[in-house]
Design goal:
Elements lengths: L8 E2 L5 E5 L2 E6 L2 E6 L4 E6 L2 E6 L4 H22 L2 E8 L4 E4 L3 E5 L6 E4 L4 E4 L5 E6 L2 H13 L10 E4 L13
Antiparallel strand pairs: 1-6, 2-3, 3-4, 5-6, 7-12, 7-13, 8-9, 9-10, 11-12
Length: 177
């Protein structure tokens, strides 16, 4: 039995949820998202809560039960609160600037890196060494943060590069004489 799947997903005030076949559509203050679900589970809206149940007792149905509940929880949280990833830039001369549509990164290459920001994602730079990626879709926010980090991953000797704010870089000792 799924420990995650048996907990219903509360729908906060201001969020409307519609179940359309094997897809759930949620609309909130941050936008509208649609989550298709596997055919092994069924979803019902009971007393302002989304309840996920498996259609059978197979191994796959039980696995999809917990997955579907987590996806629905992320869907509801995304349209009501949103998700945020923070990135930090370390290194002399490394900096970022955002003008709303283009993120410009200076990372020690001979050229600036220009990254086009998708329309449903918001990227801000509080100062030149911090980047905040936010949006309603958790998967898309994480994917874009990972793409930005991949332009210059942190290296273990001086820690230069782009890292997540909560990431710890294990440092290596340099050469010895």
């Amino acid at each position: 039995m799924s420990r995650i799947g048996k907990h219903p997903v509360p729908v906060p005030a201001g969020v409307t949820v519609a179940i359309e076949g094997n897809a759930v559509r949620a609309k909130g203050r941050l936008g509208e998202l649609v989550q298709p679900l596997p055919p092994e589970v069924s979803v019902t809206l009971e007393d302002g809560r989304l309840v996920v149940r498996p259609r059978s007792d197979t191994q796959r149905a039980r696995a999809m039960w917990g997955l579907s509940r987590s996806l629905l929880a992320n869907l509801v949280k995304g349209v009501s609160e949103g998700f945020t990833k923070r990135l930090e830039i370390n290194g002399v001369g490394y900096r970022a600037a955002s003008d709303g549509k283009i993120l410009t990164l200076q990372l020690g290459f001979s050229h600036d890196i220009k990254y086009a920001i998708p329309p449903d994602i918001k990227i801000t730079c509080e100062n030149p060494n911090q980047i905040t990626v936010s949006g309603a879709d958790k998967q898309k926010v994480g994917q874009i943060a990972a793409e930005i980090r991949s332009f210059r991953k942190p290296e273990p000797y001086k820690g230069k590069g782009i890292k997540y704010a909560d990431e710890v870089i294990l440092r290596k000792e340099g050469k010895k004489k």
